[in-house]
Amino acid sequence: MSSNCVLVLDLCVKCNNHISEGRFYPALKTIDLIKKVYLQNIPVKVLRMLIEERIPIIKSHIEKKVISQVIEDMLAHQRNRVIQGLKILHIL
């Protein structure tokens, strides 16, 4: 296997670790690096095709996770504001 394949696989592992740790921005940067710099230079066609197929799936997964976190944060903020309002009105 060429050094390019090993390098790309190492970047894939790093991307996976970023996603597992909830560090989505570095994961997206790693995906972009793979796509823009290394993807076309992967000599093993099966590996190149597999990575090409997975990139949109991974990006979609990250998008869903980020949207879920944003909604969760918004709801928590809204709950806190309601509680603060009720405390001001001496209802709680």
From TrEMBL:
InterPro entries: EXOC6/Sec15 (IPR007225), EXOC6_Sec15_N (IPR048359)
Residue stretches making up the Exocyst complex component EXOC6/Sec15 N-terminal domain: 3-74
Annotated protein name in UniProt: Exocyst complex component EXOC6/Sec15 N-terminal domain-containing protein
UniProt record, GO biological process: Golgi to plasma membrane transport; intracellular protein transport; vesicle tethering involved in exocytosis
Superkingdom to which the source organism belongs: Eukaryota
Any one GO cellular component localisation term in the record: membrane
Organism for this UniProt entry: Camellia sinensis
PANTHER family hit by this protein: EXOCYST COMPLEX COMPONENT 6 (PTHR12702:SF0), SEC15 (PTHR12702)
